[in-house]
Amino acid sequence: GGPRRLLLVSNSTLHGGGYLGHCQQHIKSFLGEKVKRVLFVPYALHDRDAYARTAREKFESLGYGLDSIHESCDPVEAVRKSEAIFIGGGNTFRLLKALYDNSLIQEIRKRVLEDGIPYVGSSAGTNVATISINTTNDMPIVYPPSLQALGLVPFNINPHYLDPDVKSTHMGETREERIHQYHEEPNTPPVLGLREGAMLLVEGDKATLQGVTGARLFLRGKKPTEHEPGTDFSFLLIDSNLQN
């Protein structure tokens, strides 16, 4: 195996572009030429066949074959044989429940952390790559056995991070306030607010912010900080040994 390699994308579609259009070059350079086929996990959406068609079309246009795990009679074996994994967006609770239901949490962890196969996540697929799904924006439409996720990185991410609109008359909590509420609980990890168009590249113990928009970092008990593409976030991986 090799070191862990993750590409964690905030969103699948950016305004004005098609499915994975804004990050397709990142995906291509991330997967490289060694990978021939990608295992797709469509569990976050109800219509898995349609979702797999969309993903297959995109990945084939980039030069990769795509197998959807829902078409396999043995999902665990599909993960064991996979060269790369892509988990797409949708509802994070539905996705995590299906990962537990199909006994895939430990298998995916092993393939990514021990065998070093590349992992691409977008939106909900990025949420489940982190410690837990506590900081997802989704409604709990189903009940996974735990909010603990794959733990491929030792912090949480909030995809589709939205800044407060100063002109808005909406009086509900902002995204920032919700993350602050999370951090009022003891022993909660950092949360990286990834704006749409942003992604985090993790290679071994190095993490770099990529894409066209920045990110906002929330550390428990501290003021949030603003970060531009190119920022080195490797320090967020430091206590990754505690996760293993």
UniProtKB/TrEMBL annotation:
The keyword Methyltransferase does not apply. CDD domains: GAT1_Peptidase_E. InterPro entries: Class_I_gatase-like (IPR029062), Peptidase_S51 (IPR005320). GO terms for biological process: proteolysis. The keyword Cytoplasm applies. It comes from the Eukaryota. Transmembrane segments: none annotated. Keywords: Cytoplasm, Dipeptidase, Hydrolase, Protease, Serine protease. One of its GO terms (molecular function) is serine-type peptidase activity. GO terms for cellular component: cytoplasm. Its EC number is 3.4.13.21. NCBIfam families: PRK05282.1 (NF003642). Belongs to the peptidase S51 family. This is dipeptidase E. It comes from Caloenas nicobarica (Nicobar pigeon).
